[in-house]
Amino acid sequence: MQRQQVLYLWTNGSALDSGTVGWAFHDGTDGSGPGLPNSKPPYPDGVAALRDGWMLLQSSQLVPPLPGEEHQNSYLEYEFVFERRVSS
Amino acid sequence: MAQFVANGFIRFDAIVPADVNERGIEEMRRLEAERFAPDGLKPPHTGTPLAACYPEPSAIGEYLRLPEIRGIIESFVGQNPTFDHDWTHHIRPHATYVQPLHVDAITDSPDTTFDVQLFWYPHDVAPGEGGTRFVPGSHLRRVRSSGLDRYQHIAGEEQFSGPAGTIVVFHHGLWHAGQPNPGDGDRWMHKVRLNPTVAQVRLWNTDDLPELQNPPSDHIFARILPDSVAQILRTMHPWMSVTDYRNEQVQRSKLWRYLTGDETYDVDHYLTRLEGRAALVG
């Protein structure tokens, strides 16, 4: 059986090697699989996550600002979603 | 005030006396137990002028009527704000629930008016004991509250720790969350939200403002005043992209215009440049 671990990284630029500014981890193995590095953030950028065995699932689209909302921030803009499949 | 605009909060350590803190915990305990009971201690009605809230004897009223606290409140929301709501936050020892990041209420209106929320910590909160988590500089972003659940960790986020009697004043839009309590003691905090009833223009002591208010020409890529409001409004938080940061400077400048009544105020020419060009096309 394979179970999935999911890692979100938010970065300070649109590139995968931009610096990590936020992260979240969801563990389908309920702790029996490998964890994250203890550093905060766990990876300095998305490429470091690739090198540790994470597979990129999705990156956020680049969305032009709506007229009148050019200077209004909202959610963290640059989101990368990774998965790691763990066999048990 | 400029720090509040840049960060979304400002704290006042150990400003409430020890005896008020001790009685405050007892009152919070009663409010928690009796708020929804048929009888007993109730919060004020929403919309009540603050001056009529928490009549004597009340430790919560006593703290809110301290001259220092009245001055803080008046500086942000004027002399006669109204009560929005309060809540007693009680986290039991070894509680493990991690509240997700959120903003209170609903997505904010686009104008620059704001409420304040006073967080009163009546006992010491040591580092690592899971005090309120918050994200400095997040208060001017427009989000839906549940949309923030996804962010388990954000670079530069803080968790409150500090001595008993500390008050932290939050802009209502600041992202925050309750945290687990790994300690052996109950943790208490009282939050009260206040609505302004007057325009929030120069409500604080502005004696030093003429000296510190930079002209709209203050521009990091041209010339700057070394000690000015703009220098504080240029605070870049660790989680911000360059675009985020510049947009935040625009939003902070708009808020500072509101707070000071100075419609020409700017940081780094962002608003002035666009307004000048817009005037060319009527």
Which characteristics define this entry?
heterodimer, A: 88 residues, mainly beta, four-stranded antiparallel β-sheet, 38% strand, B: 282 residues, alpha+beta, Jelly Rolls, five-stranded antiparallel β-sheet
Descriptive report:
The complex is a heterodimer of chains A (88) and B (282). With 88 residues, chain A is mainly beta. Chain A has one domain (2-87). Helices cover 7% and strands 38% of the residues of chain A. Chain A has one helix at residues 46-51; strands spanning 2-11, 20-27, 55-59, 78-87. In chain A, a hairpin with an 8-residue loop joins β1 and β2 (20-27). Chain A starts with a strand and ends with a strand. Chain B is α+β, with helices and mostly antiparallel strands. The chains are: A mainly beta (88), B alpha+beta (282). Chains A and B meet through β1 and β2 of A and β5 and α7 of B.
Quickly describe the structure:
The complex is a heterodimer of chains A (88) and B (282). Chain A has 88 residues and is mostly beta strands. Chain A has one helix at 46-51; strands spanning 2-11, 20-27, 55-59, 78-87.
**Number of DSSP helices of chain B?**
8
Quaternary state of this entry equals: heterodimer
Shape of chain A: elongated
- The helix content of chain A is under 10%
Rounded to the nearest angstrom, the radius of gyration of chain B is 20 Å
- Please tally the helical runs of chain A, counting DSSP H or I stretches of 4 or more residues: 1
Report the β-strand fraction of chain B as a percent range.
Answer: 15-25%
Which strand order spans the largest sheet of chain A, edge to edge or round the barrel? 2-1-4-3
CATH topology of the largest domain in chain B: Jelly Rolls
Along the chain, the helix and strand elements of chain B come as: HEHHHEEEEEEEEHHHH
Low-confidence stretches of chain B: none
The pLDDT mean of chain A sits at: 96
How many domains would you count in the coordinates of chain A?
1
The name of the CATH superfamily of the largest domain in chain B reads: q2cbj1_9rhob like domain
Distance between the termini of chain B: 35 Å
Biggest sheet architecture of chain A = 4 strands, antiparallel
